[in-house]
Amino acid sequence: MTKVVITLDNTQTRVLVSGHSNYDVSGKDIVCSSVSSLMYYVASLISELTKNFEFREDEKSATMDLVINEKNDTIDAIIRCLIYSFETIEEDYSDYFKLTINK
């Protein structure tokens, strides 16, 4: 199962992705592909807005970690869209994907 934990506070946002969904074999797994694509897209957007972030990925441990140390309306809107997208994945693929939001 792919697990996403999003932690939101007044100064920092963290999005931690871990695990394989096992929806299908590697290369055909639409759940993993969707989650990875969203994470790369959001990291790219954030990189255009601030240098005050970190994005790490480790294919061996099946993790992606995005930490944003800045808050503004644009970044908040991007994170809201990411949350909505993850919620949609969870609705359709709850056996393979779990979203947790900590505030």
Structural topology:
Elements: E1 2-8, E2 13-18, H1 30-49, E3 53-58, E4 63-68, H2 73-92, E5 97-102
Parallel strand pairs: 1-5
Antiparallel strand pairs: 1-2, 2-4, 3-4
Helix pairs in contact: 1-2
Description:
The protein is about 40% helix and about 30% strand. About 20% of the residues are buried. It has a single domain, classed as 2-Layer Sandwich (Alpha-Beta Plaits), CATH 3.30.70.1490. Helix 1 runs antiparallel to helix 2. The chain is built from two helices and five strands. Strands 3-4-2-1-5 form a five-stranded mixed β-sheet, covered by helices on one side. The protein has about 100 residues and is an alpha+beta fold. The radius of gyration is 13 Å and the shape is globular.
Total number of strands: 5
Largest sheet: 5 strands, mixed
Low-confidence stretches: none
Number of domains: 1
By secondary-structure content and strand pairing, the structural class works out as: alpha+beta
Strand fraction equals 25-35%
SSE order, one letter for each helix or strand: EEHEEHE
CATH topology: Alpha-Beta Plaits
Mean pLDDT: 96
Q: Using the alpha-carbon principal axes, give the shape.
A: globular
Query: Whole-number radius of gyration?
Result: 13 Å
Instruction: Identify the strand order in the major beta sheet.
Output: 3-4-2-1-5
Portion in helices:
25-40%
- End-to-end Cα distance, whole Å, is 23 Å
Count of separate DSSP helical elements: 2
CATH superfamily: Cysteine protease Prp
Assign the CATH architecture: 2-Layer Sandwich
CATH C-level class: Alpha Beta
